Each structure stands twice: as C-alpha cells, then as structure tokens.
Amino acid sequence: MAKSTSQFVKLGVFVILGSLLILVMAYLIGSEQNIFRPTFRITAVFSNVNGLQKGNNVRYSGIDVGTVRNIVMEQDTSIRVYMQIQDDMLAHIKDNAVAVVGSDGLVGSMLINILPGSGKGSPVQDGDEIATYSRISTQDMLTTLNVTNENASLLTADLLEVTHSLRNGSGVLAALLHDSVMVQDLREGFHNLKVSTARSEQAIGRLNRIIEEWRLEQSTLSLLTDDPEFTEQIRRVAANLDTSGAEIRELTGRLNDLVSGLQRGEGTLGMMLNDTVMASEIRHGLSHLDSGLVKFDENMEALKHNWLTRGYFKKLEKQQEKESKKQQ
Fold it and tell me: What is the pLDDT of residue 189?
C-alpha cells in the first residue's frame, strides 16, 4: 500500500511538471508567434517568394516585429503574403515602406525585411498593402555564376590558343613580337601620327584665327560699303580696271602679231632672226667694231700723254672737277 502511494505521488509530480513544461513551451511559442500580444495585419504581393513559408519571421530595420501568417497564390505571377505585426510597431511602419524577401544569413531560413520608405508617410492601418521589391535569388545568382564560369573557361581556352600561336610565331601579333624591324616601323608610324596630329591642331588653330580675322574684315567691309562715297570710288576703280584690261588685251594682241611676224621673217628684225648669213656678218662687224673701239681708246690715251695735247686734256679735267663741285 505504501509502495502504491509513493508511485501515485511520483506520477502526480511527473504529470504536474510535464503540464508546466507544456505550458511554458506553449507560452514561448505563442510569444514567438505573437499569439499572446495585440497585433495587426498587413499584406504584400510578390512575384516570387523564394521558398518563404508560414511562421517565418518579419523584420523591420533588422528587428523581429512579426511573423508570416499565410501565403496565398493569387495568380501565376502574384503571390500575396499575410504578415502579423506587433501592435506597438503600428506607429513606426509607414505606408511607403517596402517589403523584401530575404534570408537569415547565407544559408538561413527565409524571412521578410520591411525597409523604411524615402520621404514622409502616414502610419499603416490594419489590412493595408505595402509595396514590394524583388531581389535576385540565390538560385539566380548561382545560375549566373555558372554561366560566368563557363564563359571564363571558354575565354581561358581562347587565351591559351592565342598564347600558343604567339609562341609559335603565327599571325600578325606574333610577327610584331618577333620582328624588330616592324616594331620600329610601328613606333615611327605612331610618332609620325603624333606629329601629324600636333600639326593638324596647329593648322586648325591658325584656320580659326584666319576665320576670326575674316569675320572682322567682313564686318569692316560691311561698314565701308555702307559709305556712298566709298562705294562710288570702288565703282570708278572697277571702271578703270575694265579700261586697263581692254588696253592690256589690245597690247597683248599687238605683241602676238609682232612675234608671229618675227617668226615668219617679216621686217628687218625678222630677217635678222631668221637669216643665219646676216647674223654671222653682224657678229663679224661687231667684232671689228670692238677692235676699233679698243684702238680708239689706246689712241686717246696716247694723246693725253702727248706734249702737244696734254694741256687741253688738263684744262678739260679741271673744268669737269669745277662742274662736279658746283653740283655737290
């Protein structure tokens, strides 16, 4: 009998402790799920929730403020998420807030982050819908990374092929690497290109200055053409130029006729130009004339030193000196 009583007491204590533990666990779970505190509900529509489930946390500026109560598929491109938020956050969450599906760390469970909106907004009300923003999911990032890795592999293979070709000396680049003469020519070409570019810039600068001067001259010319006296002078000069041009054309015609006649042998000058015998006689006569002039100079020099004519030449020199002094 005593043994049965102790067993009943132990059983009662175990039941009481188990009940208390269950109550504590229920309270903790209820507190975590916001069951035993006043809450309000807001919704958000996403195109992809990325594995979000009921009971996942809702955070506002990094603080746990509620849980996900329900997820409803409205259309093939829209999923509505119902969030239960603590009532004391009603004054802090504005209607311009943005909901984003994220994860708790790199490999943690999914959750919803509510981010404050820019500018001023009004506090949300129970049942309001807030805006959403879809981030790139981890799966999408892994897919993109996989594609990037494949492209990097292809690029590496191409680079290896190019490097192999360069080492074997095939292709234009390999020729540039191994041909020092071509490299020197390229350097000289680039140097000449730089020089040409510099000269082109200088020429463009000069052309700009010429254009500016031309604009200035054009403005000055417009001012001069507004003067009637200057305009009349320009007209007279143009008329004189026309007259001079006509006279020059007439003189040119006469010269052409004269040259044509000379070429045909007309006149004395034409005969002299075309008759070789006469030209030879003229040359012979000129040579005799040169000899006669030389002998004449010698005779005059002898007369200057002859005692009969020396006085005459001295008087003549004195008279020439006097005249030169008077002119000075």
Answer: 77
Rounded to the nearest 5 degrees, what angle is found at the Cα of 85, between the Cα atoms of 130 and 35? Answer: 150
**Nearest partner of 327 among 101, 296, 319, 183, judged by Cα:** 319
Q: Which residue has the higher pLDDT, 249 or 32?
A: 249
**Residue 231 belongs to a domain:** no
pLDDT average, residue stretch 98-124: 84
**CB burial string 182-218: b at 16+ within 10 A, e below:** eeeeeeeeeeeeeeeeeeeeeeeeeeeeeeeeeeeee
Q: Which of 52, 55, 53, 73 is nearest to 64 (CA)?
A: 55
- Confidence check: pLDDT of 272 > 60: no
| Domains of the chain: total | 3
Q: Reduce the DSSP state of residue 305 to 3 states and report it.
A: helix
Helices (runs of H) and strands (runs of E) counted in the chain: 8, 7
Residues 6+ apart with CB under 8 A from 35: 29
Domain that holds residue 289: 268-299
Asked if the model's pLDDT at residue 116 lies above 80, the reply is: yes
Radius of gyration of the chain (CA): 59
Specify whether 116 is located in the same domain as 64. yes
Query: Does 116 reside within a domain?
Result: yes
- Confidence (pLDDT) at 71: 92
